[in-house]
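Appendix B. One record, verbatim.
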Amino acid sequence: MYVLTSAKLFGICLRVCGDRTAAEDVLHDVYMIVWKRAGSYDPCLGSPISWLTTIARNRAIDWRRNQTRQAALPLDNAPDLPDPAIDTEAGMLLDEASRGIFASLAALESHQGDAIRNAFFHGFTYAELAERHCVPIGTMKSWIRRGLQQMRRNLELAGH
């Protein structure tokens, strides 16, 4: 299996990680995950290579997010930043837009709203959300796409 899949999976890891050494480490983790979860593979949900590439992509994304979190400066060492105060008019427009977005999100069906909130506010991937809701990844992608389309229509009707 390694000989047949490693080049493709390494390419995915390298593209997401941007670093060869990190991609090699992530690829190692991918094969460890595959080894542990081989029994959970369901051919009804997709081909073996799709399953492997999803694991590789998700693991590489997790690595990337972890690197971003670790790279953040502690507040004590943060450089002086400009005053984030927003002028009154801009603040009112921002509040109105935020209320419109949250109202549109609340108007969605619960499964769509939950998926969009978790994807955009908590950083869950499609695969993580699909697993969490026990649905195929394609269904999760459709929920989010249709939910975002409905939000756009709601915001356009409201004049935002």
